[in-house]
Amino acid sequence: IFKFLGAISVDLGQDRIKPYLPTILTPLYRELNSNYAEQDPTLKNLSQEIIELLKKLVGLEAFSLAFSSVQKQANQKRAMRKKQRALETVANPDIAARKKLKRHKNKAETRKRKIESLRPLYKAKRHRSHALKDVAMVE
To answer: Tens digits of per-residue pLDDT, 41-53?
Structure first.
């Protein structure tokens, strides 16, 4: 998709690409600023190359305006999601408590997995699944 965006940008030219610049920059910016673990470095390099291409194509001033608008929009979305999570905690404490318990359980499991990978002979205690016990009718 990034290659396609670059090709379309070059094909449209300097004047016709300007209205679509924020739309094109949004996924490129998201890829540059992402920090998840399984990130592909080739994708990051490609997005950087296309940003440089766009910068040369439309000029620094137009590019800077579009890039700053994309940056501002991403920051607003991030702040809105953070605010929504905080409001959910107040509005629905039971749902928030369940999410928190799930997060802590996952954290503990991750810690156990990490310890097992560092020390192969050590076996961490795992939470037993009571799936059959839950299904069976207990009187």
So the answer is: 888 899 999 999 9
